[in-house]
Amino acid sequence: MRSFAALTWALACCLPLAETKAVFAHFTVGNTKLFGLGDWQNEIQLAQSAGIDAFALNMAQGDTTNDVALPLAFSAAASLGFQLLFSFDYAGSGPWDKSVIISMINEYGAESTYGKRGQKPLVSTFEGPSNAGDWQEIKAATDCFFIPNWSSVGARLAVKLGGGVADGLFSWDAWPKGPANMTTYPDASCNGPRGILQLAGDDSTSTLNLEKKRKDKRLWQLASILILAGALVWVRC
User: Fold this and answer.
1) Signal sequence: where (predicted)?
2) What is the pLDDT of residues 188-208, one digit of tens each?
3) Which residues contact 114 (CB under 8 A, 6 or more apart)?
4) First vs last Cα of the chain: how many Å apart?
5) Which residue in 148, 88, 76, 146 sits closest to 113, CA to CA?
């Protein structure tokens, strides 16, 4: 399996390069300690050959790899017409300092290679619901469009955290746990609040056609169901 392809997701109207939906791959920056510019370019070219438009860069707080990797990643993306966005990991090494997040978004968010929804830099997290209150200040300082993963608390609570700070949600709760079959519970928890709509069926075998900018159609396996104002769909290969 190619290293970038562990998980992909699609966002409607988020990137200027996409007419309808753009496909993102979750990419763990902590695995790139020994990467040079050519390695980043190779990963991006592999992603592009699979029809992927952007990497969501998962980063643990305090990881010095981030400082080395980000300039290389953005340089490689600019040379190849690719997009990147930040996914701040609160589970790997603990919560992020909000001042560091603000600094990083303001440094990179205006780049043409940074993924946006409209003019707003798109920002995500892996967990971190206990720090939801930080994001009111972060959003005010960066004008970002915020779509966290707070699956550990469930969607009904997640949309209320931090005074309803999330602009949308995504979920990692999309696959069977060990020998247990997938149920409709994760989907059902997403009905109702703040316009979140249910798309998935009763298992992880539903399919979704994504119309790509090149007008070709790729069939993706629908993996999750969290949508706010038609903005977000998680899929996996």
Assistant:
1) 1-20
2) 665 544 333 333 333 322 222
3) 74, 83, 84, 85, 108, 121
4) 11
5) 76
Helix (H) or strand (E) holding 186: helix 185-188
The DSSP bridge partners found for residue 26 are 56
* Rounded average pLDDT over 121-143: 96
CA 10 to CA 5: how far, in whole Å?
A: 13
**Residue 207: strand pairing partners:** 221
Answer left, alpha or beta for residue 125, where phi above 0 means left and psi between -120 and 50 means alpha: beta
pLDDT of 6 = 40
DSSP 8-class letter at 114: B
User: What Å distances lie between residue 174 and 5, 7, 8, 155, 212, CA to CA?
Assistant: 16, 11, 12, 13, 23
Q: Which residues contact 160 (CB under 8 A, 6 or more apart)?
A: 193
Q: Does domain 3-236 have CATH number 1.10.3470?
A: no
Q: Give residue 87's identity as a one-letter amino acid code.
A: S
List of residues 6+ apart from 172 with CB closer than 8 A: 126, 149, 151, 224
Higher pLDDT, 150 or 156: 150
pLDDT at 10: 46
- The model's confidence at residue 171, banded by pLDDT at 50, 70 and 90, is confident
CB 40, CB 12: distance < 8 Å: no
Quote the tokens at residue 193: 């609040």
